[in-house]
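Sanity check

After download, print the first record. It should look like this:
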Amino acid sequence: MAPFQAYLVVISNQQSVISKSSDEIYGKLIKAGIDVLYDDRQDVSAGEKFAEADLIGIPIRLVVSEKTKDKVEWKRRDSEKTEILTLGQAIEKLANG
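Expected structure tokens:
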């Protein structure tokens, strides 16, 4: 049993637009009843963040970055495949298990 349903990670170069977007996404996930760990640390590399999420055992990784724009990158812990989804699509997938 994982401690969280999803891991929301911000990858940015101190860009306030990305940070603001990820804060809004986090709020919407919480409002939808999704149990999410939000990692917005700026002093840690993306690789370190991903490794920590794997160690914790969080099954879904959601990435917010310049690349994703107003969407999120979805990755299952047990898969190498990533998808770019709207937040609504991600919430639906999380809600349906």
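If your output differs, re-run the checksum step. Summary of this record's structure: The domain at 6-95 is CATH 3.40.50.800 (Rossmann fold).
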